[in-house]
Amino acid sequence: MTMDLADRTEGKSRNTLLGIAQVIMLSELAVNRALDRIDPPE
Q: Lower CB density within 10 Å: C or N end of the chain?
């Protein structure tokens, strides 16, 4: 959703939204890594 919104936005707000999207993706990676440590895939 953030990437779609960034595509429709211009200027400084677009850069802010792209930064937020990157933080969201990094958070997702961190959560997935933590879940793999708790319950490793077989």
A: C
Would you state the structure tokens that stand for residue 8, as one six-digit string? 């429709």
pLDDT (tens digit, 9 = 90+) per residue, 18-38? 999 999 999 999 999 999 999
- What HEC string does the chain produce? CHHHHHHCCCCHHHHHHHHHHHHHHHHHHHHHHHHHHHCCCC
Cα dihedral: 26, 28, 34, 38 (round 10)? -170
Q: Are 17 and 5 in contact (CB under 8 A)?
A: yes
Rounded Cα distance, 39 and 15, in Å = 36
